[in-house]
């Protein structure tokens, strides 16, 4: 055997061995249509033109730099999150556990508006992001709802901080393992890239225009599939890195904000003493107040002495609460200042009346308001001129 013939046999054996190794290594990859198949080694994807190279560079750059480093495990407060390092192919390699964390918490608070401001501040301090922020003061739906994205390692600490805004009514934390999904996506990505590399080799050797167009169409489809898989990997990495918290803020049942009724009808008893005429009358009537402390009253009072006619008092006004003494939101012993105006009528005399009262809400819940006050009234616009009266009252209003 001559030297040239021996060299030819050695080259043929080496070529056959490399071809078998490449085909065996990539058996899971989808096979392209039967054009002119030429086995290639699994050295990684190669670009055939400037457009393909630019596409690969953009996709790899976007995948290699996600918005936040992924964590492999949901850790409690103070635990160090496990980072997921990028793989050589541009994707993020999964760790033993890749957990997608989701939490829900419902908190009862005294003031929803104030608690909402505090919750926003807590999210900012923890480096989180408010995805949605909804506040409602509608009649049958009062409260606030927040959707929060925060680093997985801060989830437990943020939940504890939100719970301190009031009373936690419910809390649920769940974690889904997505490591299998991540691993499968990486296999799909690798096979697609190897298949695209084969098509690019075929494109270099293609001589027929029809064949070149068919290969270009397959390359375009493969690039689209690769972009989808890479985007899914980036999404999973971000979902593992940052958990989602759904927080709901509700008013406490004893808080005036929790009252869904708009009207509080009630009854009121009163004693009226005309300081100018030195006569007294006693009786009662009805009252109607709104969710805001504003309403109307109608009282019918009978004189205690003499043949005088009954006295009718109709007034309209409201109560003013001090922010230093409860602001109208205390359940017990909430003081207020009453301001009203109306008319006083008895047979033969009609007067304008302006009562100024000092009162106390003894009990105030979502359904009942028990209050009393003492009113000093100025009466005028009659023939007798300016007159004064004192009227203590006691009333009970029930939500309707």
What oligomeric state best describes the polypeptide chains here? single chain
Q: Can you list the strand order of the major beta sheet?
A: 6-7-8-9-10-11-12-13
* Helical segment count: 6
Strand content: 35-45%
Structural class: alpha+beta
Indicate the percent of residues in helices.
25-40%
> How many structural domains can be distinguished in the coordinates?
2
The termini sit apart by 112 Å
Q: Spell out the helices and strands N to C.
A: HHEHEEHEHHEEEEEEEEE
The outline comes out as rod-shaped
Number of strands: 13
Largest sheet: 8 strands, antiparallel, barrel
- List low-pLDDT spans: 1-96
Report Rg. Answer: 40 Å
Q: On the 0-100 scale, what is the average pLDDT?
A: 77
């Amino acid at each position: 055997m001559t030297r040239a013939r021996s060299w030819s046999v050695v080259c043929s054996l080496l070529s056959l061995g490399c071809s078998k190794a490449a085909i065996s290594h990539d058996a899971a990859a989808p096979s392209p249509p039967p054009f002119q198949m030429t086995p290639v080694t699994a050295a990684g994807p190669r670009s055939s033109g400037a457009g393909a190279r630019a596409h690969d560079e953009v996709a790899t750059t976007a995948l290699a730099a996600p918005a936040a480093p992924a964590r492999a495990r949901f850790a409690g407060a103070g635990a160090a999150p496990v980072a997921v390092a990028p793989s050589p192919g541009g994707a993020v390699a999964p760790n033993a556990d890749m957990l997608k964390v989701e939490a829900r918490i419902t908190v009862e608070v005294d003031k929803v508006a104030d608690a909402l401001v505090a919750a926003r501040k807590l999210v900012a301090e923890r480096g989180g992001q408010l995805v949605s922020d909804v506040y409602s003061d509608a009649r049958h739906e009062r409260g606030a709802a927040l959707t929060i994205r925060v680093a997985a390692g801060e989830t437990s600490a943020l939940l504890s901080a939100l719970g301190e805004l009031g009373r936690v009514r419910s809390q649920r934390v769940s974690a889904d393992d997505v490591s299998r999904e991540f691993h499968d996506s990486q296999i799909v990505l690798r096979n697609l890239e190897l298949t695209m590399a084969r098509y690019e080799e075929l494109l270099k050797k293609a001589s027929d225009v029809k064949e070149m167009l068919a290969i270009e169409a397959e390359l375009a489809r493969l690039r689209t599939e690769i972009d989808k898989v890479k985007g899914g990997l980036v999404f999973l990495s971000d979902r593992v890195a940052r958990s989602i918290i759904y927080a709901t803020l509700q008013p406490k049942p004893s808080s005036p904000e929790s009252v869904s009724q708009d009207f509080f009808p009630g009854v009121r008893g009163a004693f009226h003493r005309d300081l100018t005429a030195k006569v007294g009358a006693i009786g009662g009537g009805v009252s109607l107040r709104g969710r805001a402390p504003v309403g109307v009253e109608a009282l019918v009072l009978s004189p205690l002495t003499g043949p005088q006619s009954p006295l009718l008092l109709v007034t309209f006004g409201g109560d003013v609460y001090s922010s230093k003494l409860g602001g109208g939101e205390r359940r017990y012993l909430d003081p207020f200042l009453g301001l009203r105006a109306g008319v006083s009528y008895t047979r033969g005399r009609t007067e304008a009346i302006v009562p100024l009262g000092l009162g106390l809400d003894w009990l105030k819940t979502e359904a009942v308001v028990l209050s009393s006050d003492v009113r000093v009234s100025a009466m005028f616009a009659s023939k007798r001129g300016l007159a004064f009266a004192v009227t203590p009252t006691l009333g009970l209003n029930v939500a309707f």
